[in-house]
Amino acid sequence: MAFEKIDHQNNNRPEGKTCLLVYGYDEISFKKIQDYAALYDIFEFVNVTPSTLGNTLQKLIDHTDKPTFGIERVDTQAIVLNAVSPKELNDFVRSFRTLGLPSPLFAVVTPLSINWPFHELLKDLLEERAMIANNRKFSKND
Question: What InterPro entries is this protein classified in (predicted)?
Answer without folding.
Answer: UCP014543
